[in-house]
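Notes, Module 5: Reading structure tokens.

Key idea: the token line is not a picture. It is a compressed description, and you learn to read it the same way you learned to read a sequence, by spotting repeated patterns. We will look at two proteins. The first is printed below with its tokens.
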Amino acid sequence: MVISAEIAEADLRLLEDAFKDLPRQLDFIVEDAGRLIEGPMRREIMTRLNKKPTGRMARSVRTQTFGSGTALVGPTVPYAGIQNFGGIITAGSKLLAVPLSFGRVPKGKWPRDWPEGQLKLIPRKGKDSILATVSGKKKKLEPKYVLKERVKIKGVGYLEATEKAMTKEIEDFFAERIEALLLEAADRSGGST
């Protein structure tokens, strides 16, 4: 023996009308949640990266939605993953120029940015070569970069830190917005939740 439970056809039509826009509205909520995460992620990137970040990676943080209640938030620069997780960067056809901490190199300035002939290559037997400026009558060398075949990058974990800092706020945001959406849909259908 079974008991039948049915929703009246008129009530079904009311519910379908009230909720027909629900997927699109949920996408808007997810996109707004992503935008809520962008600022804290930018701050995590700026505080966790090296001592002199240029801000390029933080400025590249974007929210991308996929129309299925899903959004991804993160930097769009190609080196974002290695900065978060860490890893080894291997030189291609040219060696990697690593600014020396004592070299007083302006942030974001690379060997290609120097006027031609201003940097001198100083090979060192059994050691990494150096790029240095030459100044004065005595031709004083000021080391600026060390040239490496590979560099190990330690990940800074900005994604995990952002997630940890924002989880509660995002959960509350979703609960509040979805409740408001359901109440609005119920009002349109003439029912209550």
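Here is the second protein, with the sequence above and the tokens below, as before.
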Amino acid sequence: MPPSSLGSKGATSGLAPIRRAENYGFVESAELRPTRLWSGAGLLNGLSDQLSGAWWAYLLVFGLAYADVLFPLLPSETTVITAGVLSSAGDMHLSLVILSGAAGAIAGDNTAYLLGHYFEVPLRRRFFSGEQAQERIRWAERQINERGGQLIVLGRFIPGGRTVVSFASGWLDMRWRRFIAFDLVAGVVWASYAALLGYFGGKAFEHAPWKGLLLAFGIALAVTGAVEGVRWLRRRRRG
């Protein structure tokens, strides 16, 4: 078939996937050159294709941020960071990512608070009976009594801390008005931190946002490690 018989629509649609892949560092240019197959670029490119313009992507951010409070192994922070990276390429809206993440985190914290308030005994027996869990509970109860609402904000950045602090605030009968006031701050700060970390990481590596994703993950791990390091030093000084 002569080249002239190919309509402009077909030519345009043929180049679109190449341009999209180029945006994530997947190929060198929009021309047909040998591709550099990076697993990170391919993954991010696939996520972009799936999530771009999809309304349910924000429900996914909300749902994981919510469920992570009750099931701490879920990757809520990873999800918000990744959504931030996708926002840097225009595939998601940054403000909606922050709103979805914050709303899910706040809803999850308040669910844990209510469960702790009304079901303290069965929850302690079922989920907090282990030695490590008991240690976290004692730490949370001591810190809540000493620092109150400040711990709700800090707990957002401690692995498993958001779960223990929210449950403990409920069964220690912290007033809900006080809890929700600090929790609103905690949820917005946490979601903004994670989403902006991904967003600026993606902007820093505009032609290969997967590198920005790795950078954002590294910074997040460093912050978490610093918080845990400070806690360990304080426990050692007390001991």
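Summary for the second protein:
- The mean pLDDT is 75.
- Residues 40-238 form one domain.
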